[in-house]
Amino acid sequence: MSKLTHLDSQGHAHMVDVGQKDDSQRQATAEAFVTMTPETLQLIIEGGHKKGDVFAVARIAGIQAAKKCSDLIPLCHPLMLTSIKVELQALPELNQVRIESTCKLRGQTGVEMEALTAVSVAALTLYDMCKAVDKGMVISQVRLLDKQGGKSGHWQANE
């Protein structure tokens, strides 16, 4: 049988039954980067964008996305998250914005997908707000950085 958890014994996709798992504290952190022109990044940093505070809107979008992850990702469990943090950081030396999200809960399954969804949607929102001035922006390096809790314990990405 496959080690992929969303396949049953016949190889069909299904939602994993987590009903027998013990509740535990769980946390996941993910990141993404958006590369843009120096002019676009400067516009964001200076707050001169006509649509308003780009970082604030992207942050709220990321939080909302984490809360709705099970509506977006098939077979993802609906979760009662206890904390969602989305941070955006301008990196002028790289013409990038780094986005990081940490999601937490006490429950029976992990929050990796919620953290990954948060950074992805925050990056897409940043793109949407700035596409009128920079259609060539690149969203990249969406990845899980850290996962804690549950049966598999602690996992950390290699730098």
TrEMBL record:
Molybdopterin cofactor biosynthesis C (MoaC) domain span: 15-150
Q: Which InterPro entries match?
A: MoaC, MoaC_bact/euk, MoaC_sf, MoCo_biosynth_MoaA/MoaC, Mopterin_CF_biosynth-C_dom
Ligand binding (substrate): 75-77, 113-114
Family annotation (PANTHER family): MOLYBDENUM COFACTOR BIOSYNTHESIS PROTEIN 1 (PTHR22960:SF0), MOLYBDOPTERIN COFACTOR SYNTHESIS PROTEIN A (PTHR22960)
Which proteins does it associate with, and in what oligomeric form? Homohexamer; trimer of dimers.
User: In its UniProt entry, what is this protein called?
Assistant: Cyclic pyranopterin monophosphate synthase
Its recorded reaction(s) are: (8S)-3',8-cyclo-7,8-dihydroguanosine 5'-triphosphate = cyclic pyranopterin phosphate + diphosphate
Q: Which CDD domains match?
A: MoaC_PE
Q: Which residues form the active site?
A: 128
Q: Which UniProt keywords apply?
A: Lyase, Molybdenum cofactor biosynthesis
UniProt-annotated stretches for the region Disordered = 1-22
Listed pathway(s): Cofactor biosynthesis; molybdopterin biosynthesis
Q: Which family does it belong to?
A: Belongs to the MoaC family.
Q: Which HAMAP family match?
A: MoaC_B
Biological process according to GO:
Mo-molybdopterin cofactor biosynthetic process
Q: What does this protein do?
A: Catalyzes the conversion of (8S)-3',8-cyclo-7,8-dihydroguanosine 5'-triphosphate to cyclic pyranopterin monophosphate (cPMP).
